[in-house]
Amino acid sequence: MGGLGTTNVQTRYHMNLTTHIFLEQPRIGWTVLNPSQSDLISLQGEVRQAFGWSLEADDASANAMSIDFQGAAPYNQRAWSITSRKETLSNLGSEICTAKRLIAVGAGSDSIQVSDYPGALFIAADGAVGAIDDLSRVLCVVSDGDGSEHLEEAAKYGIHVVLHAHGDNTNIWKELVARWSLFEQPPPLTLTHQSEKHYEGMHNPGGFTDGDRALCFIQAVGRSLQEVECLGFRTDYVGPWSGTTNPERKKQKLVWMKESMRRLGVEHQLIR
């Protein structure tokens, strides 16, 4: 995956060096994501303006999630405490940064047989996890909660969910975590938001749709997106793994996904 003039040896060297530096960092202190690019955060405000959504609604959802996940055992799950979430995020970040081959899967993906991608690990955007035939190869699902039965199956399997709060999904995420907390093996959680405020134990990696937010998240944990493959990121139609949505509104949202990917430097990975 090296660029022009970059040998495979050089590429492996830089990837190994990145991994070495990451592993040599003090793990106890690594508890939050790296600061997001300012233009990825500002995009969220641009989206709100374009669709007529309010920052106050995003604040309210993020604040509600922050309150619900305070204490030693949110939803009676000690694994969902702030301290435990920091630990599981640290472990997830390590897996993302050390994966030999990392693939992000968007809602426009065809069905994926992991045997066709030797050595690859996957990060799925919400319902796109349903495209992957072996959930043991999925590191996490980045979701705002509308991935229907595919997200539910991943949660039952115990896959790490990067769960997002925004202005019109408060009831959705509340219903999901209440149900997931009753599973024999509740999924590890990382909580994200799109507020401009700081909430302890939550993060704003930037971006807008589940797809581009997954890429923002990967970058925020320290993995270069130039080392990441994208499958099913497209703007020409609403993908088969998208949750229940208004098709025309969804297409408008995909325009913003494209802009987010442009700012991330990976627009070339889009299917036109």
Would you give an account of this structure?
The chain has 272 residues and is of the alpha/beta class. It has one domain (31-269). The protein has helices at residues 8-24, 38-51, 55-68, 82-98, 148-157, 170-180, 210-220, 247-264; strands at 101-105, 120-125, 138-143, 160-165, 189-193, 202-203, 228-231. Strands 6-5-4-3-2-1-7 form a seven-stranded parallel β-sheet, sandwiched between helices. The relative contact order is 0.17.
Short description:
With 272 residues, the chain is α/β, with parallel strands linked by helices.
Unreliable residue runs: 1-31
Give the strand content.
5-15%
Number of strands: 7
Mean pLDDT: 88
- Biggest sheet, in brief? 7 strands, parallel
- Helix and strand run: HHHHEEEHEHEEHEH
| Shape type | globular
Distance between the termini: 21 Å
Note the total helix count: 8
Helical content stands at 40-55%
Task: Please describe the structure with a list of short key phrases separated by commas or semicolons.
alpha/beta
Topology:
Elements: H1 8-24, H2 38-51, H3 55-68, H4 82-98, E1 101-105, E2 120-125, E3 138-143, H5 148-157, E4 160-165, H6 170-180, E5 189-193, E6 202-203, H7 210-220, E7 228-231, H8 247-264
Parallel strand pairs: 1-2, 1-7, 2-3, 3-4, 4-5, 5-6
Helix pairs in contact: 2-8, 7-8
